[in-house]
Amino acid sequence: MDPGSEFEGVGEGRLTPVTEIDIRGLAEVRDEKDVFLSVYLPTASREEEAENRSFVARRSRAMEEALPADLKASFRETMATVEDLLFSSPIPGERGRIVFASAPAPLLRAYRIGIDPGRAMVLDTSPFLLPLAKLRDDYLDYGLLLLDSREARLFCVRSDVPEEVGRLSADLMGKHKKGGWSQMRFNRLRKGAVRSFLSEVAEDVRESCLRHKTRGLVVAGPGDAKKEFLELLPHDLGRKVLAVVDLPIDAPQRKLVEIGNEIALADERVLSMERAEELRAQILRGGLAVRGVEATKVALEAGRVSVLVLLKDASAPGWICERCQALEARRRPPPACPNCGGPTSAVDVVNELYELAERTGAEVEFVEEDACLASGEGVGALLRY
Ligand SMILES: [Zn+2]
């Protein structure tokens, strides 16, 4: 990726869905020295903002003191670049902010997001991506369809923010006078009109799902239209339906997103439990899986990993060689790399494994809790071969 200085999100004054952030590109960025500043801040309230200021002041002071003399000036320069980005007023709907910056690299990425990222500030040889990766795992984009027999609204929910992407309404028989028709004939005609309306909605949903690459679809609304709609959905789309929920057609957006998020998150939890289960089964039968930091690292380096499976709270102190990328867990960094003599630094090996996975195109799955993974340092991988 072009590591050039670039403004995103904060400068534009819009919310960026976490799925839109080029995490793979950011995983390619590294330097031999600790020049990359990563900051995650919650911005939902005034109290948070006040806490952010003292947190950043405290952390930056500690960082500057810990840095070798030759890096202090560039660190101050980086801090000066991000000052405004960190503390500018939040826009409506903003609940957090993520900034990656380095004056010497140069790199500058800043994003306003609709979710609370927790508070973290790290200076390292590469952008600190693990918190962002966890957010992306929890907040996949999904579609939300609210419909009855004459109105349909389709939303794409990205990082907690609903965006209306389609709206259809049918003037069912409105133009006709019921007078003169038998009740039976009226009902038949109305039924046909509802059906053709719902087919139109299904077609719209299909197009939208393709365009927005949503993970799944929540179907909501009052009455029986939902059921009829599901019967009209083509099979491939039907499989994407995460849940069907009874809701009034005028349900407020906030409520919709709240319910949709719960459903999407529950679906993600099921998926990650399935992954953990698959890993356990493969390990038990000596199949295509590894567990533990060392074995996982070797598999990643060989490009054999299809899915890196990480416990959410996994972390393993260790060191990395900034030149040849030699990586070792459970050791303090040696003065120089035993392989190439390059500079070493202390790292969280789990974060390094994560970045390695991104660079090698492996999928990454975070698991809430799992005994098998926990006994393997919280790290494992399903292998391609
Ligand atoms: Zn080395």
Overall average pLDDT = 90
Number of helices: 11
Residues in β-strands, percent: 15-25%
Distance between the termini: 29 Å
Description:
It holds the Pfam family baeRF_family10. This protein has helices at 23-27, 46-66, 69-87, 130-138, 183-212, 225-232, 235-238, 253-284, 293-301, 349-359, 371-374, and strands at residues 36-42, 96-102, 107-113, 120-124, 142-147, 151-158, 161-169, 217-221, 241-246, 289-291, 305-311, 317-321, 327-329, 344-348, 363-367, 379-383. The model is unreliable at 1-7 (pLDDT under 50). It folds into three domains: 1-138, eRF1 domain 1 (Translation, Eukaryotic Peptide Chain Release Factor Subunit 1, Chain A); 142-251, 2-Layer Sandwich (Nucleotidyltransferase, domain 5); 269-385, Ribosomal protein L30/S12 (60s Ribosomal Protein L30, Chain: A), CATH 3.30.1330. The protein is 39% helix and 24% strand. By secondary structure, it is α+β, with helices and mostly antiparallel strands. The chain binds zinc ion. Zinc ion binds next to loops.
